[in-house]
Amino acid sequence: MNAEVTISDDYRPADDEPFMNDRQVEYFRRKLLNWKAELLSDSRDTIEGLQDSTRAIPDIADRASEETDRALELRTRDRQRKLVSKIDAALRRIDEGEYGYCEATGEPISLKRLDARPIATLSLEAQERHERREKVHRDD
Question: What is this structure's pTM?
Answer without folding.
Answer: 0.78
